[in-house]
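thought: fold this chain, then report.
action: predict
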Amino acid sequence: MKKQVREVDFLIIYEHKVRELENMCLVKYELEKRGYTVLIKHIEDEEALEAVKPVYHARVVMTMACYQNASLEWHTKDFVSFDKVIDMQWENIVYPKDERAGVFKNYTGIGREVVRVSWGEANRKRLLEAAHMDPRNIKVVGHVGMDFLRDELKGYYLDIETLFKEYGLPTDKKVLLFASPFYADNLSEEYIAGMCKKHGEDWRDYYDFMMRSERIILEWMERICHERNDILVIYRPHPGHIGVHMSEVEKRCDNFRVISEKSVKQWIIASDIVYTGNSSTIVEAYFAGRMCHLLFPLEVTDGFELKLISQGEKIRDYESFAGTVDEKDPVFPIDKSAINEIYLVDEKEPSYKKLADMAEEVYKDPSYNLTAEQLSSYRTKQPPLIQMQKKLQQWDWFYDKYKEILANEHIRFHWIEGQRALRREKAERNKRFAIESTSEEEIASIVKKIAKQLDIKK
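observation:
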């Protein structure tokens, strides 16, 4: 019997749970309130990895990024068919070297045809001048994540006592949060070579900058932890980063903790002072009303320092860093004007409502539909035998028999062994992304928590 494809209005595909999930649940809340069906899935969701044909048909797919054909193929795989695409563009702020025409982050192929979210005018200008995108496809709606720092949703996050009890943290110390922008010390040579191919050979220099900067900052953190027992340092790794050096410091210092879970905003509002580096986290600290210092023990690789903080006041040595702990009347290191240039700030209407308005417009207007040619052209052209195999596997009875043969270890020949190897590779990849996966129950819980806060404000 042929399995039915599930129809949904919006299918949201995310990559990093702590960066995106809460934000997407806020969008889901608003769209469902307007009567639409909304599903949230991780890029490496087991259902997506297993699918050989569409399990879902979405009127609109909302992806975390759509730079080119490979981006969309990776995100949608074979598990979803769709009519339209909205790129949420969670990497809205790019390095200066990526702002010129023709580079990876200025879009090719299908990436030039989709609707794109812009947090503010600076990114819209880049997309027009460097990427030459259709102005109609660029939607300035602000950053949904910042809505959690508005009065309407401030009660969403756990209070300090509840949060610290959950993680076994002391509540009698001054809390220093370091929101790390580094993600280099566990990258393979293959990954680095791939990044250089996409972004240029100078990315290897930036990789080295991140490695050395992180080691120095960890030395600062360890030193201050030994010198001052009245502080607690929370080290918040970059999403998806699993590093060994931070864990070593944690073993040596009772008042140093590495915590990857929960959004960075939760930890910002629970901290007394925030520290970061070449990162937009400083904006979240600004909206949360927390002091944030920029730690730059080394000069950033040319072309990689974010414009947002290029004119900011930076801390270059340990003594200056240690001096911030008890500083009276600190001055925020970047001007408000720099933030307003990059982020649309509307005190009357939150960004999640603007985004929902835009999504509804895209949903209703058939002119945003991708053409049949566009919907087929972004996929990698497979050899004829692979094409035939994929077509056969779309028949339920054939696919069931195929899985039965794979499960029978007594059946061994070259093609079957190759298929088993591919499935083992998929299973291993799914394990690596297990920390990012979620469940329908967790999503429903987040939406319920959001709804409770917003209903209070009515």
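thought: worth noting. The first strand starts at residue 6 and ends at 14.
final: tokens above.
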